[in-house]
């Protein structure tokens, strides 16, 4: 056994029955009783101190209380003992989950070797102090945007599976199940139990939340508790839980059932329900209401469709009742007569145009004939051509011996010029 010397203040001598390293050896070890006495004498010199913590265990035996205090910011714990004489002087409503301050003095039992702290005074931590700390945290989280409405996720219209985090065999669980099943009998739940107060509340709720949030079948998660005083609801304002809810991918409903001084979970959740019953009503639609809505919409659709068909039939009958559609033969006959008249007029106009064209052509033909050289030749005239077809116009151009071609009305003859005839020579 390794033996440690009990520490003493500078200049102070250890008790006479204390054990020191020089007082023991493997050949001459000290006794357990002497070692425990040394520890008792050492811790007995510690003064009373005030500590703050949360009661995590509270067992009453023969009027005395045996429990544990846990640090609110870590997992450190101490054992406490409250003798019946002291218990009569402390608040009677103390219990597990309470946040307290206590005056404690170290106490070491030589016979059993147990180390604990004897409580000489204990009281609740002032609610005002707790609320002040919560409000500071609330302001910090609001500044970070964790309470903003834009980041809150919408709830599904009809969740296939509802995740539920609540106390085992609690009234909150019964309320959620009963009201949800009354509204939609086919609703399904996946429930994870967690302590709803005390030191196990936050870690168990975090574990349940992580499990349900990772389940792809869960469409929405309800965290439910049947209300309580602010002291017992402190776990639902824990910063770790609040940030985990804000980071969750599944929509979360807070149903702590506490109207006044609501926990921070209410602010960060995607929906705050006033009670577990209200949560069930907000998450699950009422099948009766939905059937009524469907029936109403169906009736409205039937009415609109009937009205539209009736309106179209009336318009069709109105069109069919018009004279042109009721008896179309007269208008066709009238148009046929007009077509015949127009065709006759067209034929007359074409005939008159052709006749006028014929007359104009005859007149032009006559004019051309009158101007034609052939008409001149028919009257007995002739045309003399030099070689190359050049018309002879001047007698001087055909000296004697010049070959000529004489064209008459019917044919041409060859001739030779005898030269120019003087005027008068050809008369008679």
UniProtKB/TrEMBL annotation:
It catalyses: Exonucleolytic cleavage in either 5'- to 3'- or 3'- to 5'-direction to yield nucleoside 5'-phosphates. Coiled coil: none annotated. Signal peptide: none annotated. InterPro entries: Exonuc_VII_L, Exonuc_VII_lsu_C, OB-fold_nuc-bd_dom. It is an enzyme of class 3 (hydrolase). This is Exodeoxyribonuclease 7 large subunit. Bidirectionally degrades single-stranded DNA into large acid-insoluble oligonucleotides, which are then degraded further into small acid-soluble oligonucleotides. Residues 1-27 are annotated as: Disordered. One of its GO terms (molecular function) is exodeoxyribonuclease VII activity. Its EC number is 3.1.11.6. Heterooligomer composed of large and small subunits. The keyword Nuclease applies. The gene is xseA. It comes from Microbacterium istanbulense.
